[in-house]
Write a structure and sequence with these properties.
Number of strands: 14
Strand content: 25-35%
Shape: globular
Distance between the termini: 52 Å
Largest sheet: 8 strands, mixed
């Protein structure tokens, strides 16, 4: 097991690696860089006299890498680590962290084009059903999740399935970032600067999820065809499928999915404020 000093750390922070992970791999892992820069920024805010921890500030003392998962050979996918964060009185903050980085959640809402405009009438939202082994599920209903590619277009397995089943593609210019609208970025030197996303499990995981909105009015006949087709029933061996859910029932049908509940809350709050 090798050790190195975290670059630009004050006080110096030793990082203990596992045998299968190199310093270069860790420092090139985007999730690690985002996490450490965010944490260091938050720790620096303790210098403000108004901060709760100003009189006994916490410091990052060391990082122990406990495990790493690799995707496609040597590309780091996930990292489990323990960060020691303590003050000079020996008081510690919980520091077990599962690093996986950010993703995106999509609220994809369809409405018949003959429904009254500027209303919520007959809106349907696309959900995915797929195995989620960490949740112990083989068919979890959730908002489509994935990533934004280099052009800002929704991409990933769910996006591919949506394109195959409906022909719909979701370009960047048609997306509304609900989290960005709701969480105004702070430029104050005494405030933390977290990622503009929802943290579904901040007690143990760094994952943050911006929630995007895409709405489209489609011919009623097309929507009815999709309603008959996108029922959530999977063909034999099919790993992911789609279903249409009435928007007003999202909170119930997607009630186990943090993305769905966060998206519903953001959508309703921003709509009531007239921002969407």
């Amino acid at each position: 097991m090798s050790t190195f000093i975290l670059p630009n750390s004050v006080p110096e922070v030793p990082v203990h690696l596992t045998p299968d992970l190199t310093k270069e791999q860790l420092l090139s892992f985007p999730a690690f860089n985002t996490w450490i820069s965010t944490l260091q920024r938050s720790l620096s805010t303790q210098s403000q006299k108004s901060h709760t921890f100003h009189d006994a500030p916490y410091n990052l003392r060391k990082i122990d890498i406990q495990a790493a998962d690799f995707f496609g050979g040597q590309r780091v996918g996930f990292i489990k680590l323990k960060a020691e964060v303590s003050n000079n009185h020996g008081e510690k903050l919980p520091g077990s962290v599962f690093l996986r980085g950010g993703s995106v959640g999509m609220m994809l809402i369809l409405q018949p084009d003959d429904a009254p405009p500027e209303t919520e009438a007959e809106k349907q939202i696309i959900l995915t059903l797929q195995p989620r082994i960490p949740a112990g599920s083989l068919s979890l209903a959730e908002l489509p999740a994935g990533m934004l590619d280099d052009s800002g277009t929704f991409a990933g397995r769910a996006a591919k399935e949506i394109a195959e089943e409906t022909g719909l593609e979701i370009p960047a210019e048609d997306l509304t970032d609900l989290t960005d609208l709701a969480l105004a970025a702070s430029s104050s030197d005494d405030e933390e600067r977290l990622q503009q996303g929802v943290y579904p499990s901040p007690g143990g995981c760094d994952e943050f999820i911006p929630i995007f909105l895409w709405q489209k009015r489609v011919p009623r006949e097309q929507l009815q065809e999709w309603q008959g087709k996108l029922t959530g029933v999977r063909d034999e061996g099919e790993k992911i499928t789609l279903m249409l859910c009435p928007l007003e029932k999202l909170w119930r049908v997607g009630g186990r999915d943090a993305k769905a509940l966060a998206g519903w809350a953001l959508y309703e709050g921003l709509r009531k404020e007239g921002k969407i």
